[in-house]
Amino acid sequence: MTPDREAAVAATRALPGIPVDDSGPVFREPWEAHAFAMAVTLHARGLFTWPEWAAALAEEISRAQAAGDADCGDTYYRHWLATLERLVAEKGVTSADALTRYRDAWDHAADRTPHGRPIELKPEDFVG
After folding, report:
1. 84 near 32, Cβ under 8 Å?
2. Closest among 114, 112, 115 to 125, alpha carbons compared
3. At 31, is the pLDDT very low, low, confident or very high (cuts 50, 70, 90)?
4. CA-CA distances (angstroms) from residue 26 to 18, 80, 103?
5. Mind giving me the DSSP string for 55-107?
6. Do 39 and 84 form a contact (C-beta atoms < 8 A)?
7. What is the value of pTM for the model shown?
8. Pairwise CA distance, residues 26 & 104, whole Å
């Protein structure tokens, strides 16, 4: 088993609730797999423990449910990404302002990119 595969399997064992099938984690869209991989990598680098991650994710899901998220399973990785963003900001890896700046730039880049083409960030995407 490759180190990446081992890390993914360890994450699915440590974190109940991850959508899985017989092959491992299941992702509906590529960005979900990227968010999963970023969290697995940051865990492997010691940024947080799986129990710490699970508590932060549960808090994020509870907050979303209180705000009206129907929790039908289709928003799981949105909560995963929000948890990842919050933890990296809390741990000082980046700032909330930097995350907002890049999120806005990504949205700008996506808006100018024709459907089916790869999205690339360019300096002009960082407007304002």
Report:
1. no
2. 112
3. confident
4. 8, 14, 24
5. HHHHHHHHHHHHTT----STTHHHHHHHHHHHHHHHTTSS-HHHHHHHHHHHH
6. yes
7. 0.75
8. 27
